[in-house]
Specification:
There is one protein chain. The relative contact order is 0.22. β2 and β3 form a beta hairpin. This protein is of the alpha+beta class.
């Protein structure tokens, strides 16, 4: 992914000085109904993954970045689901196309609901933060 302008996915009330974010990874995982909860298959190519497949129990999207804009992740997920438009597939080309708009008002998708979103990990580069050692 890399460093780019995420204006298309920032909330209108976002107070960040810059929409530029460095996204290091976007990974998709699926869990089938008959798999244990901790069993996931990596499905980075959404072109081959049916969002409406009744056997897919959960699709998990992992985003790793230096920082996020307000509602950025919810807006990305909402746009990808909306882009499938009731079809059985969506693709990551949609994400690139929406990023190029650089305007949230042109992205006609609601944010994903917050109930499925959680922060899994936080990693700090203490040297870069110049935190005094105790």
């Amino acid at each position: 992914i890399g460093e780019m302008d995420f204006s298309s996915f920032r909330n209108s009330t976002c107070q960040s000085n810059s929409p530029i974010r460095n996204v290091k990874e976007i990974t998709f995982y699926s869990s089938l109904e008959d798999e244990p909860a901790n069993s996931r298959s990596n499905i980075n190519d959404l072109n081959t993954t049916s969002l409406l497949d009744p056997n897919v129990h959960v699709i998990t999207m992992k985003i790793v970045a230096d920082s996020f804009l307000q509602k950025m992740v919810r807006n990305i997920v909402g746009a990808l689901v909306h882009s499938s438009n009731g079809q059985s597939q969506c693709n990551l080309e949609t994400l690139s196309r929406l990023l190029a708009l650089k305007d949230r008002s042109k992205v006609m998708a609601r944010p994903a609901p917050p109930q499925g979103l959680y922060l899994a990990d936080v990693h700090y580069d203490w040297d870069a933060l110049k935190v005094p050692k105790t």
